[in-house]
């Protein structure tokens, strides 16, 4: 091979060195291009998943033997977050904390002569569930007579959840009648749950001028709740002599008063999540819906379709009046004051109970 006088390299050595550097540059460029490509693709996928999580469709994933349908959010982040996170970390070093798994589900029954209007109302609940990532359970057919399918469907959902491992099950369920319309889908249900220091509370309910209204209530996924709902479903069997003016609703009210249940239920203000289109004739108690509140319930109204469509029309043309984040309402202040008041009342009752107790000297 020829050599250059005075040079320490041969021509072949120089050519080999240039080829080596060219290949190295090409490998470097390809590696950087691959990383950039993977990063862009990962970013697009992440954006797509977050978009689905907040605005995507629900998918029906299960139908039970009774006809109960289960609708889940479509986002992978509620099911595959760990796997996706690990994969992206290995590829491009991208890492983040996945959104917290929702702990609340929503349940309802919809059938009968108002069913078309009910479906329009349920669409607002689906939209609310999409924004907040809630699972929804929907029964389209009766499984018991009258209105008793309500508690039967709820009992099925409770049992299905309790059969799951604790880390996979929902913690609370919201029952909503199909004649309720979500007015402010930006309000999450978590804000209504009892504070952490009240694990003894298993049911949140509201009352109106007729007593209990169970068109909307929150119930914990627990063995207590299974016993409670089972007692309602079977009430007609072991208390056949009892008059039930409002059928299963009256049964629920009577069961709530039983010794084993009464200390684990809490009455909440109706306007929080069970507001009506009007006050019902009550001058001092406001049951009617106010802008920013979660929903409106057509309780006791004959032409439910008319009222449902009226509120859907308001949403279509004046959404800016009703849809606002919780921070734009007084929910936080009301809820904190409510539970603080209950705590103070509880402490006062405890003091009164022990004041005249002859065993008190043993405790002091």
UniProtKB/TrEMBL annotation:
GO terms for molecular function: glycosyltransferase activity. One of its GO terms (biological process) is protein N-linked glycosylation. Keywords: Glycosyltransferase, Membrane, Transferase, Transmembrane, Transmembrane helix. SUPFAM superfamilies: Nucleotide-diphospho-sugar transferases (SSF53448). GO terms for cellular component: Golgi membrane. The keyword Glycosyltransferase applies. Pfam families: Glyco_transf_34 (PF05637). PANTHER family: ALPHA-1,6-MANNOSYLTRANSFERASE MNN11-RELATED, GLYCOSYLTRANSFERASE FAMILY 34 PROTEIN. This is Glycosyltransferase family 34 protein.
